[in-house]
Amino acid sequence: MVKVADIERALEPTWCPGCGNFNMWKALKEVLEESGMGFEDYAMVWGIGCHGNGADFYRSQGFHGLHGRALPVATGIALSNPELKVIVSMGDGDGYGIGGNHFIHSVRRNIDMMAIYHNNQIYGLTTGQASPTSDQFMKTPSTPGGVVEEPVNPVGVAIAQGATFVARGFAGDVDHLKSLYRQALDHHGFSLVDVYQPCVTWNKINTFKWFRDRVYKLEELDDYDSSDRTMAFETSMSTFHELTCAPDECKIPIGVFYREEESFTYQDGLPQLDRPMWKHAEKPRDISEILKEY
Amino acid sequence: MPLPQKGSELRVKIGGAAGLGIKAAGQTLARAFVNAGLEVFDLTEYPSLIRGGHSTYTLRVSPRPISSHVETVDVLIAFDRQTVDKHLDEVIDGGAVIFDPEVTSTDGRLPSRRVRPVPVPLKKFAKEAGGPIMANTVALGAALGLVHFPLDTLAESIAAQFAHKAEEITEQNIAAATVGHGYVSKMAGDFWMKVEGLPDAPRRVLVDGNEAVGLGALAAGIGFYAAYPMTPASSLLHFMAAHERDAGVVVKHTEDELAAMNMVAGAAFTGARSMCATSGGGFALMTEAFGMAGVSESAVVVGVFTRPGPATGMPTWTEQSDLRYVIHAGQGEFPRVVLAPGDQTDAFDLSWKAFNLADQLQTPVIILGDSYLSDNRQSVPYFDLDTVTVDRGKLVSEGDVSDHPDALGEHGDYLRYKVTFDGVSLRVLPGVKGATQLVNSYEHDEYGWGQNGEIAAERTAQNEKRMRKLELARTLVPPPAVFGADTAEADVAVLFFGTTKGPVLEAMRWLEPDGVKVAAMQVVTVWPFPAEEVRQFLGAAKRTVIVEGNYTGQLQGLVREQCLVDTDDTLHRYDGRPFSPEMVYAKLKEVADNG
Question: Where does residue B379 rank: exposed (0-12), middle (13-18), buried (19+ CB within 10 A)?
Answer without folding.
Answer: buried
